[in-house]
Structures are given as structure tokens and as C-alpha cells.
Amino acid sequence: MRRLRWVVAAGLLVAVGGCAQFSYLGQSVGGHLRLMSAAEPVDKVLSRQDLAPALREQLALSQRIRDFATRELHLPDNNSYRRYADLHRTAAVWNVIAAPELSLKAKTWCYPVMGCVAYRGYFDHEAANAYAQALRQEEQLEVMVGPVPAYSTLGWSNWFGGDPLLNTFIDYPEGELARMMFHELAHQVAYASDDTTFNESFATAVERIGAERWLSANGSAQAREVYERGNRRRLQFRALTDGYREKLKAVYDAADSDEAKRAAKARTMAALREDYARLKTDEWGGYAGYDGWFARANNASFALLSAYGELVPAFEALFEREGQDWPRFYAEAKRLARLPKAERRRELADGPVAASK
After folding, report:
1. How far from each other are the two terminal CA atoms of the chain, in whole angstroms?
2. Confidence at 301, pLDDT banded by 50, 70, 90
3. How far apart are CA 212 and CA 72, in angstroms?
4. Most buried residue among 90, 208, 221, 354 by CB atoms closer than 10 A?
5. pTM for the complete prediction?
6. In sequence order, which residues have a C-beta less than 8 Å from that of residue 260 and are 6 or more positions away?
7. CA 126, CA 130: separation in Å to the nearest integer?
């Protein structure tokens, strides 16, 4: 999935005790610093005479999007996405996500400052795969390893130049590039240290609303068409997978034996892939961009999808309740992020007045 990411702010601080944890945070700090040192100001990159025309165009576009983010969406006005780095690899990091065989509850890892999150990121693909294999063997978990095109440091890197643009996503179509940048900047606005679903759903709501506004104001007819086509597929993908996530949850919550649950799970996953094949043929004209996800789909995959979409409608409703006023919306998101998790969820779903009754 495009929207996997790893927040590394904790790795920039003092590592907590334990050799394994120290080693892990050590690779996170080293990997992040190497990434930051590879970044150069966009203006400097654009001044090169031998710069590829396609990259020149995308970098210039990114700066217009960045200006729009601050001017129109009231996202942070700082150094993030004013520099560019070519990492000479296809992902910024690789995330490991894990869940039990008969549950959609993701395993969590806890770190200083950022709290507990439902993923563990590695700058080295082989290291991510090795850790994933250990989880399968030692904890009998279902695991996915996903490439992460970008991640946020929650603003902690602004003193060191800010989160940079990367080769891993700079060539995205205009609407998708805007979504990516708005999403990552949103993580600098509001963040709850114990609630991955809150954080990712908030950023996803910002990216959706922001991308539509960018394209409406600035996008060409072709850019809008490309975005709308991709967004239709994205919504159909979410509708299909949301439905099957509920079916799997019903299987796992049933008062059946583990053997019966495994059989029902196998039937459900087979039906999912059959429905996807029909969707791909009947609606998408053979578009294969989601083939990999469905081929590898497991409980970890579904657990991650929940984090990125579950609360998006609630945030979109909150944006409307705040009169589509970005500063008011952000202020309310920040207030919610400071609440205990259960209270936060009640207020987000019902509004502060209704939740207090």
C-alpha cells in the first residue's frame, strides 16, 4: 500500500534500555541521518543544467503544492519538502506489520515520545524480512512487509532541514503527489502517541480534502481525470476490503473452534480474491495495481487498512462541523489528541456535547 509509513521521531532521541531495542533504534537513527544528509535544497537541484526534464517538472510542481499547503490548507510553514534526496532505492523504509492467525488486532511496538504504533520500520529491506520471518516462526503471527515511500518525523527534523522530498514518490501523478505531501504535513499538526488509527485517519482526511481542493484550483483537465480514475479504484478497493474485513471479524468473533474458524477464514479469503478478480475485469479494464495486495492479503494487511480508513468519515464530518475552517479543524484535532483514547473516540464520533451526555 502506498500509504504505509514509519514515524521515526523516537529514534532521534535517547534509546531505551535493552540490547535489541538499542540496536533497532540505532539503525533507525543511522538510516534517518543518512537520508537527511542526502537531501539538497530544491532550488539547488533545479539549477543543474543536466537535470532530467521530468524530474525538473515534478520538483517545480512539488513547490507549488507546498506553497498551497501553507497558504490554503494552513499546514505548517517550515522546511519540510523544500529539499530533495535521491536514495537510489525504491522505498524510504520497509514496514513490518503483524497480527495473530485468528484476529485482526495488530501487534504494537512502543517507543519514546511517539508511544505505541502498529508497525516497525527498517531502512534495510533484508533486515525487515528477517524480522518478519522471526515473528512468523517465534510468535506464529501473520506478517506483511510493505515498502514505505515517505514517512513523517512529526516536525522533529525541521531543525535539520525538514522532511525531504524523495525519489520514492516524486514521480507520482499530480493528485497523488499532493495527497502524499498533505498527508505527511498533517502528521506535524496533530498526533496522539497511543492511537495509530486516529493519526492516520486524520492525515488521510486532510489529504483527501486537500487534494480535491488543489486539483479544483490548479489541476489540468488531464490531472483531474487521472486522479478521479485512481480515486474511483481506491474507493472501490476500500469498499471491497472493508466488507471482507467485517466478514473476517465475524469469523474470528464466532463461538466456534479454531479449526472451524480456519476453514471459514479460508473460504472468506477465497471469495475475496474471486470478487477482486471480477472487479478488476468488469470495472477496472484489467488494471493490475492491486494484484500484489490481494496475492499477499492476510490479517496483518486488513489490520493496517483499518488504521488508515476507520475514522476518516468522522474527521470529514468534524471538518464540516467546524465550518470547513482549517485552523478550527486543526485546533479540535489537537484537543482530541490530548484526550484519553476512549474519550477521544467518543467525541470524534458524536461531538463533544453528545459525548458528554
Report:
1. 39
2. very high
3. 12
4. 208
5. 0.87
6. 254
7. 6
Strand segments, DSSP code E, in the chain are 40-41, 83-85, 93-99, 109-111, 115-117, 120-122, 142-148, 165-166
* CA dihedral sign, ordered 263, 140, 131, 92: positive
Identify the burial level of 48 via C-beta atoms within 10 angstroms of its C-beta, where 0-12 means exposed, 13-18 middle and 19 or more buried.
exposed
CB 239 within 8 A of CB 344: no
For 287-309, the three-class secondary structure string (H helix, E strand, C coil) is: CCCCHHHHHHCCHHHHHHHHHHH
Range with lowest mean pLDDT among 5-14, 238-247, 263-272, 325-334: 5-14
Distance of alpha carbon 116 from alpha carbon 218, whole angstroms: 38
42 vs 45: CA distance, rounded Å: 5
Distance CA 101, CA 269 (A): 13
CA distance 84 to 171: 12
Question: Residues 181-220: pLDDT tens digits?
Answer: 999 999 999 999 878 889 999 999 999 999 999 999 999 9
CB 105 within 8 A of CB 96: no
Res 292 pLDDT > 80: yes
Asked if residue 158 has pLDDT above 80, the reply is no
Q: Is the pLDDT of residue 355 over 80?
A: no
Rounded Cα distance between 209 and 333, Å, is 15
